[in-house]
């Protein structure tokens, strides 16, 4: 029998490694089997655990069979079994306790080495399962090293992930020890543990942060219909309520802007334009171009999703955006091709249009 102290040590390992004690005990059994397997102990080594008394017994099992089968540990023929127990018969399980405390130094060393190796393998498998289940999720990560090519993070579960600086949010600089949110793209299993691919520049990260930060998106009351992002600069996101009397844009902004401020902070203060998704393409295009205000949306080809938008002259630069960013992101977010003209341009070119956009001030 092993001592209560040994059981408590197993409990401590399970708690420290954040693993179920049953998993640790299974590895104790494997290590015991390796340590005890010699010319004397040729059977199947198993543990008998008394959780209430915190006691572990180690038993050698020998299974009496009429014919040995390859790969089954502990099998013995009836003739050999009768040397152990005269009344033995086919199907018997001949069990004898092993006093682990009387094993030699070499066997103890075998146990330690095998157990430590099994725990490492278990932790790697647990970490792989943990991160595999979180592909497409946002997690917290701590910066532990930076250079001109990569940023390395501690992402928990004894796992480190190196992210190319091209996956950062724009030109952000991260200091060692700082905690940030990262998005898990994919996970690969390797002999050294899981290889976790992470990013901060993906538009999917923005979507997931919105889902986590806005309860109405989480419960399906609001849906994210379209999203375009230029990481570190600006994001446009279209939202639509699935329930009546719910303002989707207002819900995302939050009282006093608290919700959107928290999202901005997580994204290194990236600018975020939230617009209300509309079923009517005229209204949808006008909403997507906000904060610029439109006068008219001319649907040129609904099948090809091509439209011309006319804005007041003083709104033209805002509608286009710096280096065309506003119209570009709007087009990507709603999947339309959008051309912008000022009112004076439209009039001078003789373009036929109607003032068909009504937007609240």
Can you put this structure into words, describing what you see?
With 361 residues, the chain is an alpha+beta fold. The protein has four domains: 4-131, NusA, N-terminal domain (N Utilization Substance Protein A, Chain:P, domain 4), CATH 3.30.1480.10; 135-199, Nucleic acid-binding proteins (OB fold (Dihydrolipoamide Acetyltransferase, E2P)), CATH 2.40.50; 202-276, 2-Layer Sandwich (GMP Synthetase, Chain A, domain 3), CATH 3.30.300; 278-361, K homology (KH) domain (GMP Synthetase, Chain A, domain 3). The protein contains twelve helices and 15 strands. The chain has helices at residues 4-17, 21-36, 78-84, 105-132, 203-213, 215-218, 248-253, 258-266, 281-288, 316-320, 325-334, 343-348, and strands spanning 44-50, 55-65, 75-77, 93-98, 138-146, 150-156, 159-164, 179-190, 193-199, 222-230, 234-241, 271-276, 294-301, 306-311, 337-342. The strands form four sheets. It has a five-stranded antiparallel β-sheet with strand order 7-6-5-8-9. Strand 10 (222-230) and strand 11 (234-241) form a beta hairpin. Helix 1 crosses helix 2 (21-36). It is elongated and about 110 Å long.
């Amino acid at each position: 029998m092993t001592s209560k102290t040994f059981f408590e040590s197993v409990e401590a390992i399970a708690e420290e490694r954040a693993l179920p004690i049953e998993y640790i005990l299974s590895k104790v059994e494997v290590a015991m089997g390796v340590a005890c397997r010699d010319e004397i102990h040729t059977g199947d080594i198993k543990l008998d655990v008394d959780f209430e008394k915190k006691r572990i017994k180690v038993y050698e099992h020998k299974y009496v069979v009429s014919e040995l089968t390859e790969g089954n540990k502990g099998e013995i023929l009836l003739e050999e079994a009768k040397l152990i127990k005269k009344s033995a018969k086919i199907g018997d399980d001949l069990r004898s306790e092993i006093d682990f405390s009387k094993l030699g130094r070499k066997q103890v060393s075998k146990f330690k080495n095998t157990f430590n190796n099994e725990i490492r393998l278990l932790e790697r498998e647990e970490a792989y399962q943990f991160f595999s289940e979180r592909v497409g999720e946002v997690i917290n990560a701590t910066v532990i090293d930076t250079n001109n090519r990569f940023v390395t993070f501690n992402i928990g579960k004894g796992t480190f992930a190196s992210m190319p600086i091209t996956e950062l949010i724009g030109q952000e600089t991260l200091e060692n020890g700082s905690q940030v949110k990262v998005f898990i793209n994919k996970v690969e299993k390797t002999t050294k543990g899981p290889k976790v691919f992470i990013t901060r520049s993906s538009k999917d990260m923005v979507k997931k942060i919105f889902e986590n930060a806005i309860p109405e998106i989480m419960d399906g009351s609001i849906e994210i219909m379209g999203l375009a992002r230029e990481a570190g600069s600006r994001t446009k996101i279209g939202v639509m309520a699935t329930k009546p009397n719910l303002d989707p844009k207002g819900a995302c902004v939050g009282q006093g802007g608290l919700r959107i401020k928290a999202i901005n902070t997580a994204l290194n203060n990236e600018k975020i334009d939230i617009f209300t998704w509309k079923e009517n393409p005229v209204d949808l295009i006008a909403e997507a171009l906000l904060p610029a205000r439109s006068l008219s949306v001319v649907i040129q080809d609904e099948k090809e999703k091509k439209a011309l938008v006319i804005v007041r002259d003083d709104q033209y630069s805002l509608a286009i955006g710096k280096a065309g960013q506003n119209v570009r992101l709007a087009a990507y977010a709603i999947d339309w091709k959008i051309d912008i003209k000022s009112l004076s341009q439209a009039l001078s070119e003789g373009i036929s249009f109607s003032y068909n956009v009504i937007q609240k001030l």
